[in-house]
Design goal:
By secondary structure, the chain is mainly alpha-helical. The chain has a domain of about 160 residues. It has seven helices and no strands. Helix 1 packs antiparallel against helix 5 and helix 2 packs antiparallel against helix 5. The C terminus is likely disordered.
Length: about 250
């Protein structure tokens, strides 16, 4: 029975120590993750601050104007090459002959509207080309940032694993210390119980001693044996035998 209780007590101590070590490990890992999250937030805010500054806005506007100029030049070059082709001019001439009546019937306002529509289409082509160029650059930048984010996540994962590996000995030591603390607590309780028992026996001894000294100033041999028996826990309280021994000693 006592062995089963001892085994159950040891098992409970081990489970309690393992739970405490697990909580401490999770606490340290959570603190490391919170620090990494705070660092990421600081870096993101710093990037947004730099992005919103005037010099960066001016740089973005300059890059946008340069992209628009390049798109305009490229569209103009494409139109020049397309309209300068003999095949294109022949097709235009043939289409004009096929729709001669319709073209002659056009009013000046309709011609102006058609020219405006052509200019709008040209502007739309320029904007689309510039936008596609900007989107391509942003896609490259996002791809680069994605790679940096993946590398950063890998580094954070490795750092977290390293932190777990570093704190693992402390967790094991914490478990051992918890077990030892529980054992010391049990030993302390046993010592306190033993101390209370000794104090009780000492009070009994003092009570018996005071009772004997009141009746007789001199300690007789029987009194000494009785006091020693009381101190050791033996039952030697036979008053008749003690009185007989006192009478014999007095005679």
């Amino acid at each position: 029975m006592e062995e089963r209780q001892q085994l159950r007590r040891v098992q409970e101590e081990g489970d309690r120590a393992a739970l405490i070590a697990q909580k401490q490990t999770a606490h340290y890992a959570l603190e490391a993750f919170d620090r990494e999250t705070q660092h990421a937030i600081v870096l993101q805010r710093w990037f947004q601050t730099l992005k919103n500054r005037q010099i960066f806005r001016e740089g973005r506007e300059l890059r946008a104007r340069e992209a628009h100029t390049r798109a305009d030049d490229k569209v103009s070059e494409i139109l020049r090459q397309s309209t300068g082709s003999v095949v294109f001019q022949a097709r235009v001439w043939r289409d004009c002959l096929d729709h001669k009546a319709e073209l002659v019937a056009l009013e000046e306002d309709e011609c102006v509207a058609m020219e405006k529509e052509i200019e709008d289409l040209k502007t739309a082509c320029i904007e689309a080309h510039a936008g596609s160029t900007q989107v391509s650059k942003e896609l490259v930048e996002l791809t680069k940032r994605k790679g940096e984010f993946e590398r950063s996540r890998t580094r954070r994962k490795r750092a977290t694993e390293a932190v777990k590996q570093r704190i693992q000995p402390f967790a094991v030591q914490a478990k051992q210390l918890t077990v030892e603390s529980a054992r010391e607590l049990n030993a302390n309780r046993q010592l306190q119980m033993e101390l209370r028992r000794v104090r009780t026996e000492l009070r009994k001894f003092h009570t018996n001693l005071r009772g004997r000294l009141i009746m007789e100033p001199l300690l007789l041999r029987g009194d000494v044996e009785l006091l020693l028996g009381a101190l050791t826990g033996q039952d030697m309280s036979d008053d008749d035998e003690v009185d007989t021994q006192r009478s014999k000693a007095a005679v």
